[in-house]
Amino acid sequence: MKTRNNLSWKIGGEAGFGIKSAGMMFGKIFMKAGYEIFDYTEYPSLIRGGHNTFHLIVDTEPVNSITYHVDVLVALNQESIDKHFDEVAHGGVIIYDNAKAKLSPAKAKSKKINALGLPLGHLAEQAGNKLMRNVVSIGATLALVDQNLVIANRVVKSNFAGKGQKVVDQNIKALKLGFDYVKKDYKKDFICCLKTIKANDNILISANESLALGALAAGLNFYVAYPMTPSSSILHFLASVAVKTGTVVKHAEDEIGVINMALGAANAGARAMVGTSGGGIALMTESLGLAALTETGVVMVNVQRVGPATGMPTWTEQGDLQFMIHAAPADFPRIVIAPGDAQEAYNVGAHAMNLAEMYQTPVIIISDKLIAEGNTTVPKFSTKNIKINRGKLLKQAQLSKIKDYRRYKLSADGISPRSIPGMKGGLYIANSDEHDGYGFSNEDSKNRIDQVHKRQAKLDTFAKTMPQPEIYGNPKAKKTVIFWGSNKGVLLDAYRRLDKKQQQKIKIMQIKYIWPFPTKFVSNVLKNSKNVLLIENNSNGQLGNLIAQETGIMIKNKFLKYDGRPFYREEIIQKLKQF
Q1: Going by DSSP bridges, is the β-strand pair 479-483/531-536 parallel, antiparallel, or unpaired?
Q2: d(CA 143, CA 6)
Q3: Cβ within 8 Å of residue 357, ≥6 positions away
Q4: How many angstroms separate the CA atoms of 168 and 165, rounded?
């Protein structure tokens, strides 16, 4: 029996077949066995029905990407075989319900694919419910890769505990029936053994949940959103812990209501955050400008999907970068940050809370569906290094010493002392007109110039301490790959699979804090590179255009993908080898 240290597993079927439930249980089983996990779901933009898949990578090394090829395909209907047959690796396995689907022996033989036609429905009915075909298939897969059911039984019990003991017992029986059927009735010449490793304390979590936890750790106390895929799970998660954390979580009537509620809360002293996708940000742009003009620090999360307009709501892309930098009329400061994985989402979620109040300006976190809904294993988060910084928020004792308080007082760093409504001596006007230091509308030429310069100075101040881009690989290499956001996972996973000679020729630069742009750092890296490759999930190379705008350096070699799917690891490995 061949021992291996990784597995690519995909389950497919119609919505309602428990595809995601099965995938999540399968991932938890291997996480608790000590493995690293990354998952990716595909589902159509339909209210009901359609073809769904859950793709899971199991590995002994950290993993944050998916492969095109799968070792095991679980097909709960014929469509899953028809759609995904070509993805099954040479010598791989297809587990299918032989009462619902057919697989030509000749077709399977052409790729030396092992076809396991199991009576999934019959076994599920034996366990008590035909809907448990998904759980039967988990048991069958565990037998296939030489695992036992000890951990799996615990996971299944935990997953169904809320539905009563009868349901728990039925699912545990379904798991065992699938396991025993494969162990008894199939040869072992194609069965691989996932090697035994030491369990760890990792957690399995998405970037949406990580970001929410980071924000909570840094004092988030007001979150408001109108549900919009793929940002909705931030709302769902925060609502589930609202009572425990003392956080106000509001599902508002629309995106315009959302942003204005957040501005009101932030103005009153709350640490406020909103979440949406590109279409929601479009509705918020007028109030985004209002936040900048009134110097109200609020955190906005844009979890990107495929646009424009409704686009492809349940698929992934990175098409909103330039939009986030330029949204709303005129020039005003905003900070734009793009985390690359769940750990970074946690860190950025916490940092953004501080930045919004320290610089009294909107902070935009830009993510995308791949990492926002995809779960990955990370070490348990720590709050040890998270410290709350509220910037120039005045205490009453400080405010009482100021005889002539001006909320928008000119300052070299662009940041004025801030009061909260109701504080004695801290009265000011916050409106949407250009104003003087007190907040009174003022259209004087000099005042306009002074206030514009004051607000803009915030970015200059932040740029002095802003985290610089990350460099991975050989920092002295003359070949440079540039990326932002969720492409971090696939690039680093692919890089680790190159031989050492190839690795020494490449360095990889991640631009995480994108605006204000780290012009000097990026210019120096590019000027010392002979070959540069840009990798993005959009059609125009938006980061490349930004680099050209800010540094004058045009990147001609671009690898762009914009079909709604993330980059597969095989694509990046091939590109890096050719680079």
Answers
A1: parallel
A2: 16
A3: 271, 297, 389, 390, 391, 393
A4: 5
User: Using CA atoms, how far apart are residues 68 and 87, in angstroms rounded to an integer?
Assistant: 6
Bridge partner list, 37: 58
The reported pTM is: 0.96
Q: Whole-angstrom Cα distance, residue 273 to residue 480?
A: 35
Helical segments of 270-341, H only: 278-293, 321-326
Query: If you search the block for the tokens 């299944």, which residue do you land on?
Result: 156
The reply to whether 293 and 319 lie within a common domain is yes
Spatial distance between the Cα atoms of 101 and 107, rounded to a whole number of angstroms: 14
Q: Strands 470-473 and 506-510, how do they pair?
A: antiparallel
The packing angle between helices 519-527 and 542-551, to 10°, is: 90
Q: Are 512 and 536 in contact (CB under 8 A)?
A: no
Q: Are residues 256 and 374 in the same domain?
A: yes
Task: Indicate whether 224 and 290 sit together in one domain.
Answer: yes
Cα end-to-end span (Å), the chain: 37
Instruction: State whether the Cα torsion 175-179-180-182 is positive or negative.
Output: positive
Closest CA to 415 of 446, 391, 441, 432: 391
Strands 36-42 and 51-59: antiparallel
In terms of domains, do 87 and 181 share one?
Answer: yes
**What distance in Å separates the CA atoms of residue 97 and residue 119, rounded to the nearest whole number?**
6
Tell me, rounded to whole angstroms, the distance of Cα 78 from its chain centroid: 31
Task: State the CATH number of the domain containing residue 314.
Answer: 3.40.50.970
Residue 384 lies in a domain: no
Count the neighbouring beta carbons within 10 Å of the beta carbon of residue 193: 14
Where in the sequence is the domain holding 559, given as residue range(s)? 470-578
CATH of residue 561:
3.40.50.920
Using alpha carbons only, what angle is made at residue 367 by residues 202 and 460, rounded to the nearest 5 degrees? 110
* Tokens representing residue 279 in the block: 């279409």
In a domain, 502, yes or no: yes
269 and 250: one domain?
yes
Alpha-carbon span 145 to 138, nearest angstrom:
11
Per-residue pLDDT of the chain (579 residues; tens, 9 = 90+): 678 899 999 999 999 999 999 999 999 999 999 999 999 999 998 877 899 999 999 999 999 999 999 999 999 999 999 999 999 999 999 999 999 999 988 888 888 999 999 999 999 999 999 999 999 999 999 999 999 999 999 999 999 999 999 999 999 999 999 999 999 877 665 667 888 888 889 999 999 999 999 999 999 999 999 999 999 999 999 999 999 999 999 999 999 999 999 999 999 999 999 999 999 999 999 999 999 999 999 999 999 999 999 999 999 999 999 999 999 999 999 999 999 999 999 999 999 999 999 999 999 999 999 999 999 999 999 999 999 999 999 999 999 999 999 999 999 999 999 999 999 999 999 999 999 999 999 999 999 999 999 999 999 999 999 999 999 999 999 999 999 999 999 999 999 999 999 999 999 999 999 999 999 999 999 999 999 999 999 999 999 999 999 999 999 999 999 999 999 999 999 999 999
Residues 449 and 503 in one domain: no
Q: Reduced to 3 states, what is the DSSP secondary structure of residue 134? A: helix
Decide if 129 contacts 183 (C-beta within 8 A): no
